[in-house]
Structure formats: C-alpha cells, structure tokens
Amino acid sequence: MSKSTQNRRQFISTSGKAGMALAAMPLMAKINPITSIHSKTKFSVVNEYAQQPLNYSYTALEPFIDAMTMEIHYTKHAATYAKNLADAALAEKLDTQTYSLTDLIKNISHYSPKMRNNAGGHFNHEMFWQMMKPAPASIPTGELNEAINKSFGSLDNFKTVFSDAAKTRFGSGWAWLIIKADNTLAVCSTPNQDNPLMDIAETKGTPILGLDVWEHAYYLKYQNKRPDYINAFWNLVNWEFVQKKYAEVITKK
Ligand SMILES: [Fe+2]
Questions:
Q1: How far is the CA of 77 from the centre of ligand 1 (A)?
Q2: What is the mean pLDDT of residues 5-17?
Q3: Which residue has the higher pLDDT, 222 or 46?
Q4: Alpha carbons within 13 A on the beta-carbon side of 188
Q5: Is position 19 within any domain?
Q6: Is the confidence at residue 17, as pLDDT, over 70?
Q7: How many A from CA of 246 to the centre of ligand 1?
Q8: How many domains does one find in the chain?
C-alpha cells in the first residue's frame, strides 16, 4: 500500500507512548476530525475532510507548472476550501465521523451553496494533486487503455476531446474523464467547483481524471493562454493513479 493511500484512509495517527495507548482506545473515535484540522495537538487525526500533504514538492511539476503557482494553489486556494468546508460542516451539523466526503458530494443538493462550493473545491483539489506527478507522463495500459480506445478511438483522440472540454469551459471550472453508470468512459466539464459525482451535475459519472481550469491554476505562468496550460498538463498526468481509480470503480460495480 502506498504512503498516500495510507494517509487517505480514515485512521488515527499517533506518536509516542501516549499515542500508542490512545490508539487502542475506542474513545479516540470521538475526536472531531473537523476541529482537528486546524488544531496543533500532539495527535493528529487524518481524515478525508482535511487537506492532505502533497506527494511532491512545489517545484516538482516544473517547468509545466511553476513552483509559485503550486504553492499558492495548495496553501491558499485549496487550503481555504478545506477550511471553509470545516466551517460549513460545523454550521450545518454534518456528522463527518459517519458521513463520507463522497456521500456528501453525491447528495450535495441537500446542502447550502457554501457547502457545495467548498466540499467540491476540497474534493476536486485532493484528487487533482494525485492525478499529477513529475514529468514524464506515462501512458495508460491494460483495461483502462482498452476502455479509452473503445470510447474515444485512441489516446490522442481522447486528449483532443478532453482538451476541448477544458478549453471551452466558460469561466472557472474543471474538465473530467468519467466512468458513466454503464461503465463506459466519457468527457465532460463542470462549472466552478462542481463535480460529476454531484447529484446536481448535468453529466453524471465517477471522475478518474480532472483538470482545474480556474485561472488560479495557471495564470502566473500562462496568463490568458489556457490552451498552453492544457497542453502542458499532458506531461504531468499520473496514469497509474487514473488506472487505479478506474479499477476501483469498475470492481465495485
Ligand atoms: Fe484550483
């Protein structure tokens, strides 16, 4: 199991003797993960509602995404979504102990616009960081490769369709590769911080690859040239992660 996978499991991270003792205590489950996001206690609770560490440095995606963009994107924009999600969860009495972030996203129409924007923002960015890795990009293989060829004809055709979705998303939003209910692949885009898993999404499915086309993701380096940023993204795609997500979704069905 990779380190990132371990981090993303809902588990209690402890250290030292006290941590070992607490790890065996069922009472630990009563710690509120929301309040733990910003508190610097001896023990930390790792949960999907909190921003997780990046698996690479801010410079790791250069020259395709510059370090300053990565740092501001991660520490300011994405961190703010996580903080505001925590605030919304407290205000709306969301039981984050028992309600998964994915279930929240799937039922987002029952919550406030603040919850929708920030749950989506947090969920999308946590995936986005994992969907990229330092260049060079690999290529999809196995069942994912077969599915791409079946749905789009070829990897190059898929890239064209996906890039067009990213280029034509008006204003801020995301482009996605999704698995639809019938297990076929499709490309779509969503406005703002919406996600195809949301019950309000125009095109629904499970995202396995996404591209942030908010200006905050590229403007420092690419200014108004969003297509150049989209082209650069193909050097960074973590196809191993995409394949893993694909296999997880297909296996569950
Ligand atoms: Fe972003």
A1: 6
A2: 37
A3: 222
A4: 20
A5: no
A6: no
A7: 23
A8: 1
